[in-house]
């Protein structure tokens, strides 16, 4: 195999498909060619004519000279035949499978028969019996017959198969061998007992001539079968030599039917020469081409390998065991900006930055000793060094070729700079907020986990912008985005050193830093910065603080959840508030979580209940109606106060489902009472979530219709907070209910922000005074004044008044003196189950 050089990926030769299929083509020396077959036929035909009696080659050779020449030709033929036989098993083993041992035996037998033919020739010392032309011709014909049959089997591609057929063919071959050996022994010991082949003074017998022509026919048949078998296939090395050998063997037989009664003429000599040439071609076909082919194919594989390397889109560099560069392709030249001539013979380290060269040497040594060792790849930080000095990301896959004398290491190098840049961009997008450029929730959680695992005390601050949703709704999304970017830019400069500011989503930001002694002061500084944004009142935010001295005991989700819990507590207090997380806050959160879980289960199982509190006329003490109040007796928690579970239901978004259940249950109870002859009025409370449903009024009317109830039998109670989200839509729905005959009561009057505005905007028929004023009206002049004012205002507007929470007789007497229309409270009756409530009526 040629030593690799730097003269290019291919050494300049153009390799055709025929050259790759026939490896020996193109080398110096004589080669058999197809055109030589007809040429040989023409020459042989001329020789046939020349040796005929009376022509210019019809000459005899002196017996002693002929005997010497014959001996030389036969000895050469025997030696070549022995070589063919001895090497057939080695050279044909891969190609012919189990035929090789049979062919080897056949050619060794041919050599033995040719040797007996030589020893039995007239003029040679007698061998067991007098040597005569007849005796030598018998051995000659046996050798030619075995040769013809062997070549026929070879050319036809005969295989010795397993099984019964294989055993049959093997038996036939063995039988033929026995017959040939028996005939040879007979020819040597008693040739006169076999049919005559030569008659002195007359020449060859017809039997001998017929046998010679039959053997020639077998050779021609082998030639035809081989040509047909190879038709359409790419010609392999040695095919032409085999065909030429068969052609020579067939043509040579013709000379042995032409010589005269003189067995020493030129026809006989020419036939022996043809036999020797046929053997020589068989030797070349079987030995020279088959033995030399691996070396030639190795050279062509090398050339093809270089061709493929040149076509590879990635850079390829081949080194020896010591790391010296042997081959590079054009892609690698372009990748590293270096010429092939400058790289070949240099160490592979030339292509790597100095910081990676020692690591590369260690890795290459491991890989050469253990091919299974993983390749160094770009994900491990592997970089290449360009000729101009800049470094770039590369990825390398290694392949070890240890099949030759010198193991070679092939490195496939990919420039992944663009891919790495794209990956970094994707990584940035995945971990940062696209609007503000701040770390997002995922990256913040990762940094929080890293900080917590360090065991140091940390502070976590979560802030939520006040009124941000209003900015989005009334000024548009671009204004909201601009506000978020401005807040991020304003907060960053005032953070403690090493702090992380992240946007968790919407208008919620989080800050992670080491513990500070005055966290409220930091929150105040951040609040001041936000107030300076924009014009007018500026921007405010609510802050939730978590000071955690042992963060390692909590997960990032738990830490962030505690800070957000403090934030929710701050938001409940109003704008611009700051709250620290406390264990009491955590306990309340856990309690609310349990309440929500059990409340959802109660809704699924239908374990909620309605009790009814009578609403009584102040002047006459008659029961005028009932207020339906929700009650919940849980198997695990016991009796749960509405003051506890209603806020939880509102935060969990369950009030819509609960409100629909209350409406259905109250109407069903009204229908039940009416069926019992008891006609009354029931008031139900509508939650803020129900007012977000544009079909609320229709749902109420449809429920009344399903239970065949008049509209006047149902009253809806609203609070100021229930209609604050969309006052116009709430007014439309309430007006629809009033037009249908359903009365509207304003509950908890005086505890909201714009009570007089609600009285003017909504179709209110009854005002209910909140229990907080009734409770202290006898002890506080201010509460008494408020109750008196509300009653007077209501009557002025044409509304009736119901006082809630009346628990003492003096309270009722004072309400009567002030002109209150109705009351409800424990003084008369608490909220009762349906049957008990009816009895109180």
Word description of this protein:
With 841 residues, the protein is of the alpha/beta class. The strands form 4 sheets. The protein has an 8-stranded mixed β-barrel, surrounded by 5 helices. Strands 4-3-7-6-5 form a 5-stranded antiparallel β-sheet. Helix 5 runs parallel beside helix 7 (206-230). The longest helix is centred in the middle third of the chain and has 46 residues, at 266-311. Residues 1-28 and 373-379 have low confidence and may be disordered.
Give a short summary of the structure.
The chain is an alpha/beta fold and 841 residues long. The protein has 29 helices and 21 strands.
Give descriptors for this structure.
841 residues; alpha/beta; 8-stranded mixed barrel; 5-stranded antiparallel β-sheet; 29 helices; 14% strand; elongated
The global form is elongated
Order of strands side by side in the largest beta sheet? 13-14-16-17-18-19-20-21
Question: What's the end-to-end separation, in Å?
Answer: 116 Å
Evaluate the radius of gyration: 56 Å
Number of strands: 21
Q: By helix and strand content, what is the structural category? A: alpha/beta
Tally of contiguous helical segments = 29
Strand content: 5-15%
pLDDT < 50 stretches: 1-28, 373-379
Helical percentage: 40-55%
Q: What value does the average pLDDT take?
A: 82
Largest sheet: 8 strands, mixed, barrel
């Amino acid at each position: 195999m040629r030593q690799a050089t730097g003269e290019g990926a291919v050494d300049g030769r153009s390799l055709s498909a025929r050259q790759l299929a026939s490896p020996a083509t193109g080398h110096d020396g004589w080669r058999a060619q197809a055109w030589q077959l007809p040429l040989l036929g023409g020459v042989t035909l001329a020789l046939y004519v020349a040796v005929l009696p009376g022509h210019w080659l019809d000459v005899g050779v002196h017996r002693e000279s002929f005997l010497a020449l014959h001996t030389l030709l036969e000895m050469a033929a025997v030696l070549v035949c022995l070589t063919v036989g001895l090497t057939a098993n080695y050279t044909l083993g891969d190609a012919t499978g189990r035929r090789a041992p049979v062919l080897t035996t056949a050619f060794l037998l041919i050599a033995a028969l040719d040797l007996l033919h030589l020893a039995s020739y007239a003029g040679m010392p007698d061998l067991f019996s007098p040597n005569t032309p007849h005796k030598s011709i018998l051995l000659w014909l046996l050798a030619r017959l075995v040769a013809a049959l062997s070549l026929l089997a070879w050319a036809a591609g005969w295989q010795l198969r397993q099984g019964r057929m294989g055993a049959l063919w093997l038996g036939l071959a063995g039988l033929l061998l026995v017959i040939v050996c028996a005939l040879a022994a007979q020819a040597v010991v008693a040739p006169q007992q076999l049919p005559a082949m030569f008659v002195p003074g007359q020449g060859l017998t017809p039997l001998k001539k017929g046998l010679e022509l039959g053997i020639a026919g077998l050779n021609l048949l082998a030639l035809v079968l081989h040509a047909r078998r190879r038709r359409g296939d790419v010609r392999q090395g040695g095919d032409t030599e085999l065909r030429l050998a068969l052609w020579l063997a067939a043509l040579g037989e013709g000379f042995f039917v032409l010589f005269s009664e003189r067995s020493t003429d030129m026809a006989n000599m020419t036939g022996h020469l043809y036999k020797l040439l046929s053997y020589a071609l068989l030797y070349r076909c079987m030995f020279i081409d088959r033995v030399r082919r691996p070396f030639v194919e190795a050279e062509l594989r090398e050339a093809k390998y270089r061709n493929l390397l040149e076509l590879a889109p990635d850079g390829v560099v081949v080194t020896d065991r010591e790391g010296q560069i042997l081959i590079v392709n054009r892609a690698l030249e372009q990748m590293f900006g270096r010429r092939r001539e400058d790289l070949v013979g240099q160490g592979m380290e030339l292509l790597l930055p100095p910081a990676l060269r020692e690591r590369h040497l260690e890795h290459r040594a491991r890989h050469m000793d253990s091919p299974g060792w993983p390749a160094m790849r770009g994900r491990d930080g592997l970089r290449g060094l360009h000729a101009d000095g800049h470094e770039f990301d590369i990825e390398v896959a290694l392949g070890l070729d240890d099949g030759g004398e010198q193991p070679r290491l092939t490195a496939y190098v990919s420039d992944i700079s663009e891919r790495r840049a794209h990956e970094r961009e994707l990584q940035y997008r995945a971990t940062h907020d696209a609007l503000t450029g701040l770390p997002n929730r995922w990256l913040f959680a990762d940094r929080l986990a890293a900080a917590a695992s360090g065991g140091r005390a940390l502070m976590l601050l979560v802030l939520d912008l006040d009124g941000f949703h209003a900015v989005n709704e009334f000024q548009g999304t671009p204004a909201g985005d601009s506000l978020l970017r401005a807040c991020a830019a304003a907060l960053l400069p005032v953070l403690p050193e090493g702090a992380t500011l992240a946007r968790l989503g919407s208008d919620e930001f989080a800050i992670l830093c080491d513990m500070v002694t005055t966290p409220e002061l930091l929150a105040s500084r951040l609040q001041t910065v936000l107030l300076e944004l924009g014009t007018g009142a500026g921007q405010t935010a609510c802050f939730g603080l978590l000071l955690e001295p042992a963060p390692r005991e909590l997960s990032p989700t738990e830490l962030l959840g505690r800070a957000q819990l403090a934030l929710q507590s701050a938001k409940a207090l109003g704008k611009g508030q700051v709250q620290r997380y406390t264990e009491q806050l955590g306990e309340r959160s856990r309690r609310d979580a349990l309440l929500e879980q059990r409340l959802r289960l109660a809704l699924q199982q239908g374990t909620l209940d309605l009790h009814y509190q009578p609403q009584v006329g102040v002047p006459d003490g008659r029961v005028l109606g009932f207020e339906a109040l929700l009650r919940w007796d849980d198997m695990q928690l016991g009796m749960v106060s509405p003051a506890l579970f209603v806020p939880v239901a509102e935060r969990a978004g369950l009030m819509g489902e609960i409100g629909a259940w209350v409406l259905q249950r109250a109407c069903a109870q009204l229908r039940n009472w009416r069926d019992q002859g008891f006609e009354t009025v029931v008031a139900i409370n509508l939650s803020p979530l129900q007012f977000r449903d544009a079909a609320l009024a229709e749902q109420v009317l449809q429920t009344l219709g399903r239970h065949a109830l008049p509209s006047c039998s149902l009253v809806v109670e609203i609070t100021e907070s229930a209609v604050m989200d969309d006052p116009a839509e709430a007014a439309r729905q309430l007006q629809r209910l009033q037009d249908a005959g359903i009365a509207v009561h304003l509950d908890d009057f005086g505890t909201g922000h714009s009570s007089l505005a609600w009285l003017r905007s909504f179709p209110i028929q009854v005002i209910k005074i909140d229990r907080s004023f009734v409770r202290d009206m006898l002890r506080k002049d201010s509460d008494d004044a408020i109750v008196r004012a509300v009653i007077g205002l209501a009557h002025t507007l044409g509304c009736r008044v119901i006082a809630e929470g009346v628990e003492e007789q003096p309270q009722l007497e004072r309400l009567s003196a002030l002109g209150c229309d109705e009351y409800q409270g424990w003084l008369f009756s608490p909220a009762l189950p349906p049957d008990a409530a009816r009895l109180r009526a």
